[in-house]
Amino acid sequence: MAGTAVLSLVAASAPGADWYVATNGADFNDGTNWAAAFLTVSNAVAHAQDGDSVVVSNGAYDVGVSSPIMLTNAVVLLGVGGASDTFLRGPYPASGRVLVISNANAAVDGFTITNGNVTLWDPNWGGGVYLAGGALRNCRVVGNYTTDGNNAYGGGVFMSSGSISNCVIAGNYARAGHLRTTVGGGLYMSGGVIRDSRIERNLAVG
Predict the structure, then answer these.
(1) pLDDT computed for residue 11 by the predictor
(2) In the chain, at which end, N or C, are there fewer CB atoms within 10 A of the end residue's CB?
(3) pLDDT digit string, tens, across residues 137-186
(4) Is the pLDDT of residue 5 over 70?
């Protein structure tokens, strides 16, 4: 009796895609390589799905008023030149947080995060970074603010979950409104883990 051959095909999971951002890019590009890079980080993040990476070239990238970069998917945001050469800048003196990380498998690696400014009734938590999950790695969080209005928690970073590693949090400022509470000029932490990082020269007033 003739044997029956059974062929089993196993589909491999496709690796995550890379999306590219450069200061000479354009948001009408498709973002799939350096020649067709996006201009804004937020646009690349909006295209990225779970498992993707957003790769950002050297330079400074501005974040609009009340329009933070939102990592809600399991995406890696990578500054290829590291924190010394890749900047995410908030709209100070206008109001706007720079970055929100809320997915447990998201990561931000290799940026200077600066000029965030959370004011009035935003609420005043984390002018630079609001970290509710995921990882912040190899970053500098400097020169961010939470001021006026409500209670102020974390001029640089508000952290309720996730991890911070190999980061510097310095030169941030928090000030609450009249008869309100200020906690943490650089960092307010209610959960998560911090490793191998420096938190220094921050100021909390009120």
Answers:
(1) 30
(2) N
(3) 999 999 999 886 677 888 999 999 999 999 999 999 988 766 577 788 89
(4) no
Residue that the structure tokens 């941030």 belong to: 172
Please say whether the beta carbons of 49 and 76 come within 8 A. Answer: no
81 HSE (CA, 13 A, CB side): 13
DSSP track, the chain: ----------PPPPPPPEEEE-TT--TTS--SSGGG-BS-HHHHHHH--TT-EEEE-SEEEE--TT--EEE-SS-EEEETT-TTTEEEE--TTS-B-SEEE--TT-EEES-EEE--EEESSS-EE-SSEEEEEEEEES-EEES-EEESSS-EE-SSEEEEEEEEES-EEES-EEE--TT--EE-SSEEESSSEEES-EEES-EEE-
The position carrying tokens 């957003």 is: 54
Cα(191)–Cα(158) distance, integer angstroms: 10
Residue with tokens 């030169």: 171
Residue 2: which pLDDT band, with cuts at 50, 70 and 90? very low
Q: Which residues contact 94 (CB under 8 A, 6 or more apart)?
A: 65, 117
Query: What gap in Å lies between CA 19 and CA 32, rounded to an integer?
Result: 5
Cβ burial, residue 173 (10 Å; 0-12/13-18/19+): buried
Dist. CA 164–CA 118, nearest whole Å: 21
Q: Structure pTM?
A: 0.89
